[in-house]
Amino acid sequence: MKNIFLFIRQYFTFLSFLLLQVLSIVLLTTSSKTHETFFGSIANEVTGKINSKFTNLRSYFTLQETNRLLVKENARLRNELPKNILVVDSLRIVVKDSTVKDTLGRSRKYIFLPAKVIGNSYTLQNNYIMLERGALQGIKKGMSVISQAGIVGVVVETSDNISKVMSLLHRNSKVSAMLKKDNSAGSIEWDGENPSYLILKNVSKSAKIIKGDSVVTSTYSSNFPSNLFIGTVSAINSDPSSNFYTLKVKTATNFFTVQYVNVIENIRYAEQLQLENSGKNQ
User: Fold this and answer.
1) CA distance 104 to 282
2) Rounded-to-integer distance, Cα 208 and Cα 242, Å
3) Phi, psi (5° rounding) for residue 206?
4) Low-confidence spans in the chain with pLDDT less than 70
5) Residue 206, Cβ neighbours under 10 Å: how many?
6) Could you report the per-residue pLDDT of 37-90, keeping only the tens digit for each?
7) Listed residue (131, 186, 199) closest to 143, CA to CA
8) Is 2.40.10.350 the CATH number for 175-251?
9) Residues 178/216, Cβ–Cβ less than 8 Å
């Protein structure tokens, strides 16, 4: 309290000046419509700027919740896409499929499940992403994972409430891919170097490729739906001793900042995998 009185005593003249200035402005604005309008507009402008800064600050701290809601909504919309629905040949069905059907009798092939990223590595040779969604929430081994921008990886392990995803940034990761413009197929891998780039191998030299061409998942992938965005061609390497190109692909997904993803279940994945494995055993 003593310090307050000392401060007022030391700056009494200046404080008195400020008080009189405020008082004079108040008296001036109340007695003159012109000055009232002028000072009112200034006050509104200052108040508006303060409110704008406060709103931006509040929006920043609610980004995580906003992203969560957007991922959930995107999953709902993806589940309604026509390309995720199969038309069933009713003349050949004997036992009804337990898969969800719409009013036209079409079976759903892909189901999208939103999940939050709770762990992520991108500096190792073999990188993984951990999701806060597990077996109790419908996640199974072999499901594909995508972000809002592009594909992310494949589920390799699950517990009751957590799942482990082999990222595209893993030396054992291989995804069937193709050039969007002409369906020239190849295999997407990672060379263990730059986390922002993948390698597309075994693309035929008959393909006409230019930098910037889009690379998407192919129709041969059992995990991923076809035509999901992977990235764009940034460099073209041609080996004279080979009939194939090796392409450097800039990833669409930013693995440094990914926070929310969608996990995709292929309803017929187990059936397809069983047939593929049975052929290998013969």
Assistant:
1) 39
2) 16
3) -75, -15
4) 1, 26-62, 80-106, 279-282
5) 10
6) 655 666 656 665 665 666 566 666 667 777 777 777 777 777 766 666 655 443
7) 131
8) yes
9) yes
